[in-house]
Amino acid sequence: MGRRTLTVGVDEAGRGPLAGPVVCSAVAFPEGIEFPKDIAIADSKRLTPKRRRSAFEFITKNLYWSVAIVDVYTIDRLNIRRATLSGMARALEALIKKHPALRDYRIEVVVDGRDCIPLPEDLDSVCVPTVKADLSVPQVSCASILSKVVRDGIMLGLDVLYPQYGFARHKGYATEDHIKAINQYGPSRVHRRSYDPVVQMRLW
User: How many domains does the chain divide into?
Assistant: First the structure.
């Protein structure tokens, strides 16, 4: 009799911003898990902050999960695509290390997007890249929520360190206010200096 298959959803938050890390998450469901009716599982961007927080608390208390954070130095060194794929691979490896019982399954790794991630050679697994998987695969939706909440928390912390940029409001994205702040103060240590809007300012 062959191994049972278990789906692991992998997603990220923070590919597009001009500042801050990319946060990657991997999530799998324990067998027989049931979601309360008041817990909404969807693409994180479609949930209100309150519903996202409720889902986050359920995920971290009841599901198999892991998070990997990719800093701005790695993003600038590797480029955003390679850095994100590396972070997703690290999140998967951390999940398996944290929950070794997952090795009893054949793992179907569903990645949001068009790219596969490197898989551990000693893991019975297959990568299934899926565009908009955060809308159709609940494990990926959960990974999306996890990544979003963790990254937003990081950006709130960076707002305390660098209050002049307004990270608490825009989370590092290229809003008009953010661009104005970079023009006025120059890029901080947490800005991605390989990104065109920052490169073009030539302020360092």
Answer: 1
